[in-house]
Design goal:
Largest sheet: none
Number of strands: 0
Shape: elongated
Number of helices: 2
Distance between the termini: 47 Å
Radius of gyration: 15 Å
Helix content: 55-70%
Oligomer: single chain
Amino acid sequence: MTTSSPTPSPRDGDARFYAAQASREQGAADSATLDNVRDKHQRAADAWTVMAVRASARIVARATNEGAAGPVDAPAVEPMRIEA
């Protein structure tokens, strides 16, 4: 019996969940053959990426405000691709 790792949920950490969703949508955009489908998935990936970046910034700000002494556990999020 094979078990797979569970998909992150918002309660597990918003930034990780959003980053996972962005990655999933980016993969769908990359594999889409129809322009409108590719655009739809790309817009979704971009939106999830923005949410992940904002959530990561909240984690860092919260840790800073609370006076965290050690490193902050904020996931790294890749910046969005902007195409003209």
